[in-house]
């Protein structure tokens, strides 16, 4: 009997040891569920946040995550992942799902039901520390399995606009370069984070790390840019000779900007940084060519020089320019160049030149002046030297807008909803279908604006407010400008996550995809310091400039259609 008892006790102890070892193995939260575990170390890996709804689409959390800052740490078989975030103060909670736990049920936006705190216990809260010499935070999350999308939840609160909601997200890591045990880790490039240039945001002053090329992956990007008069913020004549937006190609870590010239024969020289740009394709029949030059940083401003010889209109010029490179958005295909039309006014008219000469000192050699075409024009006394002077002149000639009785245009004055709707209606020649409007403030809508508003409402371009009013005299802001122009052109919407403006978190959610689309097609650009300024009232100058870009877009596509 004692012998049997000893045998049973021994068997029980062996079983207990086996169970203990199994429990320890499970609680260790292995970094990989595969047959081979990753080698301990720190690895720079690309990442993105996806919506946790099965759509595979990127989450709005990506608007806050800084690309190129992801670090995967493997230590004793356990994995943690850290990356930098913008505007971290809007995040009230970030957490990753614990190993073996089931996802929590996220209350719908606007639901009065609070988040279940018992479900919150299924998550490990992320830690966050301020990045040295930066306003960003480095967020660290536990990762259950590096080969699987890590489930997580976030709680975001905004004050402007008022917003508070929980979101379920999936953190997807690209671990293709992480070595596995049994392989040679020395063949894995970039495992030493110290060799990854640009991971210290403090070394990149004044730019948005979301568009810092030091963290851009190889591939194609749509590039927003503008050619300016040298040393100024005013658009150069040369900006009319190029297609917008441009292209950015990243190959083997090198960045190449590609710009499409629309008067190839007449533009006899286009230099950047003292060197002639490389022609990578040309078409003599359409008088176009595409040029390319290497850059080290985006956003950035480069010095350039232009020579134009256009005998047909007696226009000969040689001047310095600045090439302002703005945001870059990844794309799988560049598609066609949408703006193939150039106004037949490479410079303001001779009349305008005479007025400028009376008011201004002679230009320095090499500055942008030149012989002007002798084409009649309308000149406003407050707009001759404005950055949008050429656009204002053209808009008046197309009857899109008029000046004031005192001979001014007031280019920096704000534009209201009635005025913008009329400008847009004239520019796009909205005709035919109308919709009788019954706004509560119909009596406040001017008679000249009513037909344009009826057409725009019928076309789904603009509408009234929830209280039944149209508010015709309310200033229209830059976000609304982008939304209406994209609707008017019926453009396919881009992913909102493409926005990389420094103030992207201040853009209303409903407008983000529209703004990303408007930027992609070159209809609108950002402002200084890579900000968009969504809530800023749009000016009359901005309104006519964007309307003309829409006109050019329609004309170019009309010519491209058989």
Explain this structure.
The chain is an alpha+beta fold. It has 3 domains: 41-203, Immunoglobulin-like (Sandwich); 209-331, Sandwich (Immunoglobulin-like); 375-560, no CATH class. It has helices at residues 2-27, 117-120, 350-359, 389-397, 417-428, 450-458, 478-489, 509-520, 540-560, and strands at 41-44, 47-51, 71-75, 78-85, 91-97, 123-125, 127-130, 137-143, 150-158, 163-173, 219-229, 246-251, 254-261, 267-272, 275-276, 278-283, 288-295, 300-310, 315-331. Strands 15-14-18-19-11-12-13-17-16 form a 9-stranded antiparallel sheet, with no helix packed on it. A 5-stranded antiparallel sheet has the order 1-3-4-8-7, with no helix packed on it. Strand 9 and strand 10 (163-173) form a beta hairpin. The chain is globular. Mean pLDDT is 75; it is low at 14-29, 183-214 and 338-377.
């Amino acid at each position: 009997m004692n012998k049997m008892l000893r045998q049973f006790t021994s068997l029980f102890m062996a079983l207990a040891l086996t169970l203990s070892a199994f429990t320890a193995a499970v609680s260790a939260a292995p970094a990989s569920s595969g047959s081979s575990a990753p080698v301990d170390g720190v690895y720079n890996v690309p990442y993105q946040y996806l919506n946790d709804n099965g759509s595979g689409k990127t989450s709005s959390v990506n608007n806050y995550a800084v690309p190129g800052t992801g670090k995967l740490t493997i230590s004793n078989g356990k994995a943690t992942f850290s990356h930098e975030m913008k505007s971290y103060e809007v995040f009230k909670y970030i957490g990753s799902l614990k190993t073996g736990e089931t996802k929590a049920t996220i209350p719908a936006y606007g639901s009065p039901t609070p988040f279940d705190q018992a479900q919150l216990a299924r998550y490990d809260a992320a830690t966050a520390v301020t990045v040295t010499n930066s306003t960003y935070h480095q967020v660290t999350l536990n990762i259950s399995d590096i080969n699987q999308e890590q489930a997580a939840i976030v709680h975001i609160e905004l004050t402007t606009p008022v917003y508070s909601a929980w979101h379920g997200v999936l953190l997807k890591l690209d671990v293709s370069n992480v070595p596995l045990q049994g392989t040679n880790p020395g063949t894995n490039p970039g495992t030493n984070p110290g060799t990854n240039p640009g991971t210290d945001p403090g070394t990149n002053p004044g730019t948005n790390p979301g568009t810092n090329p030091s963290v851009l992956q190889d591939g194609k990007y749509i590039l927003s840019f503008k050619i300016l008069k040298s040393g100024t913020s005013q658009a150069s004549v040369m900006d009319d000779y190029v297609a917008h937006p441009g292209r950015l190609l990243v190959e083997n870590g090198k960045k190449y900007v590609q710009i499409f010239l629309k008067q190839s024969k007449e533009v006899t020289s286009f230099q950047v940084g003292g060197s002639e740009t490389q022609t990578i394709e040309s078409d003599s029949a359409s008088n176009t060519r595409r040029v390319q030059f290497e850059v080290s940083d985006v956003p950035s401003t480069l010095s350039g020089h232009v020579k134009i010889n256009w005998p047909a209109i007696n226009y000969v010029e040689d001047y310095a320019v600045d090439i302002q490179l703005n945001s870059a958005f990844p794309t799988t295909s560049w598609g066609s160049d949408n703006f193939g039309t150039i106004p037949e006014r490479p410079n303001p008219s001779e009349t305008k030149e005479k007025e400028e000469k009376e008011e201004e000192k002679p230009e320095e050699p090499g500055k942008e002046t030149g012989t002007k075409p002798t084409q009649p024009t309308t000149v406003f006394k407050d707009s001759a030297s404005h950055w949008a002077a050429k656009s204002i002149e053209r808009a008046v000639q197309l009857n899109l807008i008029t000046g004031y009785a005192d001979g001014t245009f007031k280019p920096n004055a704000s534009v209201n909803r009635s005025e913008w709707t009329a400008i847009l209606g004239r520019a796009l020649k909205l005709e035919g279908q109308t919709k009788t409007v019954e706004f509560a403030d119909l009596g406040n809508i001017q008679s000249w604006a009513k037909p344009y508003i009826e057409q725009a409402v019928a076309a789904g371009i603009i509408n009234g407010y929830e209280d039944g009013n149209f508010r015709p005299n309310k200033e229209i802001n830059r976000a609304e400008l982008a939304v209406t122009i994209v609707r008017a052109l019926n453009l396919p919407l881009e992913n909102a996550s493409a926005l990389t403006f420094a103030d992207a978190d201040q853009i209303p959610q409903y407008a983000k995809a529209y703004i990303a689309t408007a930027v992609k097609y070159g209809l609108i650009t950002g402002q200084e310091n890579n900000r968009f300024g969504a809530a800023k009232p749009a000016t009359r100058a901005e309104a006519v400039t964007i309307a003309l870009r829409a006109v050019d877009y329609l004309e170019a596509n009309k010519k491209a259609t058989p």
